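WP5 quarterly update. Target: FAD-dependent oxidoreductase domain-containing protein 1. Source organism: Rhinopithecus roxellana. Length: 472 aa.
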Amino acid sequence: VAHTGRTVGRLGEGDWDGKVSEIKKKIKSILPGTSCDLLPDTSHLPPEHSDVVIVGGGLLGLSVAYWLKKLESRRGGIRVLVVERDHTYSQASTGLSVGGICQQFSLPENIQLSLFSASFLRNINEYLAVTNAPPLDLQFNPSGCLLLASEKDAAAMESNVKVQKQEGAKVCLMSPDQLRNKFPWINTEGVALASYGMENEGWFDPWCLLQGLRQKVESMGVFFCQGEVTRFVSSSQRMLTTDDEMVILKRIHEVHVKMDHSLEYQPVECAIVINAAGAWSAQIAALAGIGKGPPGTLQGTKLPVEPRKRYVYVWHCPQGPGLETPLVADTSGAYFRREGLGSNYLGGRSPTEEEEPDPTNLEVDHDFFQEKVWPHLALRVPAFETLKVQTAWAGYYDYNTFDQNGVVGPHPLVVNMYFATGFSGHGLQQAPGVGRAVAEMILQGSFQTIDLSSFLFNRFYLGEKTQENTTM
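Structure tokens (predicted):
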């Protein structure tokens, strides 16, 4: 990746600190008896030049950073800066997620992404080991995922499982009788068919993966900065399309990063920007002028990603299903899994369009559990009639309102902005494969291992949905 602007000498962070203290010493020796505050501490500031600026330091942003460094042709060849406004990740989807991994999709791309993730998670220390750091334990629990379908969704489930098997996923169909035999705690009323993932499915600790990725990319030389991207400086060029239509191509040259608790911003010259800002990625796209043109044109096509609030509840139930319990998704949309060994479970249910909660805060609606989740859980698992809710939290989905699938790869008009966003609840489990796909596109000009062309931005303008044939 070529630098924009002049190249600067590369100094490691430690080297730079050493240089600063040397200079301070020199100044002190010139001005005896005076204390030296002539050089303010700039270690918290981002560098003035970076080949790639990644907006968003969640799992998707970190995964892109990891694969860019892993696939670079020479060590230290690419300078990567990750800008994250919330270093505690208190509102990031990652730490608030249920951590499920499942290959039971209808789109081959989603199945392949989740199969690769399973292999990445199983071999995590081959990828993310850092010298002198203890090995990562993601607490990957391969108990499988169990999806239940009603009569009207049974045919869709059957055709989905056929695709899953073709792609190499180990999934089987179960009749209500087989279901009762294997999981005696389940009430099969209203269930016509079930699909059960026998390998590479279950759940893991997403917080551990986030910390492991962050530690790894820092060891690879990725620069981190806590701040907020407030502006892009770009140049424009008018072009005629093959249909003699005038379009304006833009290229971002500079990213303005506003530092925490400060009115200052730091300009960072760059060659490429990755929009991995999750639920807030549409605002970052709008800053670059995406969607600002006349309606119905490519220039006027917005990134259709918005924050949606989802609740996760934790309950205790000593009589509940045992240790072999998979992650269960009910016909009603309610879901649950075990949490640890002490008869605790966590789960919830995605609200309908009419039930969508206000996403401006992360307050939990406890009535939603009582009225919209618990009745479905108690019907499906009679033991849950006596459950006691212990705690709950809310987190954000980066919800793609167009087709609930990810947006990956470059923007057609803002030519050096790439997306890794909009996964609507499965970004966490697909982050390893998506990061690799974006890095391949940047470094080699096309997707290499999994073809994610159907996740490109152009589909929003063309009106071509890449939609899951869902059974829920």
